[in-house]
Design brief:
By secondary structure, the protein is mainly alpha-helical. Helices cover 77% and strands 0% of the residues. The chain contains 18 helices and no strands.
Length: 416
Amino acid sequence: MSPTLSVVVRNRDFRNLFLAELVVFGADWFVMVPLLVLLPELTGSGVWGALVLAVDTGITALLLPYAGTVADRVDRRKIMMAANLAALAGILLLLGVRSAGTAWLALVAIGAVAVAKAFYSPAAQAALPNLLDPADLAAGNAVAGSAWGTMTVVGASLGGMLSDVTGPYVSFWVAAGGLAVAAGLAARIRRPLQAPRDPELAAPRTWTAIHEALRYIAHRPRVLALVTVKSAVGLGNGVLTVFPLLAGVYGVGPVGTGLLFAFRGAGALVGPILMRRVLANRAWLLTGLAVSMSLYGLAYIGASVVGWFPLVLALVLLAHLGGGSNWVLSNYALQGEVPDRLRGRVFATDMMLATLAISISQLVVALLVDQVSERSVLAGCGLVTVVYAVGWRLATRRLSLTDPVPQAEAEPTRTP
């Protein structure tokens, strides 16, 4: 049995976390794909879809610093369970989106889901090393990194097809049910999801805790490089806004929209698996990160000039093979650099920067989507990612991840 599959079979608590994440990510796409198709139909504009994506990422980004602090203080299992139930309530609000006049309700609903995701994601990411033995950490990251891609394939494709056959509201109900299941799976995790804290040391105040994490990042060039790497793909993420419009150009409707998101997920699924050898060799990580960023941008530039829908799908898959690899490689590298007591906050900062980049990209596209062609959006987003990748690699060319983390850095001064 391969190490990647073996860790799922042997480790029950990791398996429950992995299954919970599969359900959470699948539910997200059972909501998003039908909603991005529904809103242009109700309003006659692509702006609402762009605003939904921007609200989703923007609210998450703003809350992540506080959510990361909570993930370092509160039982991470309880955080994940509460977040799943809060997201379920938000999704039920989408049942009221029935006309152009109620399109605003989609922003409220997705905003509520974004709040829940802001708390769920850093808790789940920070918990991972506590569920895995050191020898299983690389394999576990490859498996966990494939969860998002796996359920983007399933959720996006099935969500698109189900929406095409039954309408979007059945998909919303399915997503709500899935989140209830995810909360139950998280409740079954028995291993502690954070390291024991010294009871004699009081937890720092929220803003003090956030400042401590930011100071930690700023004074460690390797950590700073790793928390800025996801922004390259984030700044190119505005392409998602035009997926429904691009499907319309090719005359493939909701099914085509679902396929675009599904091939995006397939790339994110395959990328971490293909990068398994890079994960095992820290000397390759920085180069692998630069290559993965560049692949994303170049593939979307290619998608902007081809005229055959199956080839567009292939290029979307290739782009997100790079994007998924980028995400998993940077997460794995950070887990080896950051101590557990700061891990939630550092991962929250990492995700905040990525989601801010995504929000900026989507807001820019929202301003332009009714004035420029879909191909121009694809080319522009791809070019921005390539330029960022080149600049990032030049800035990090003197760094190495093979040197051990000094003990002083591994355990920074604690706030009394």
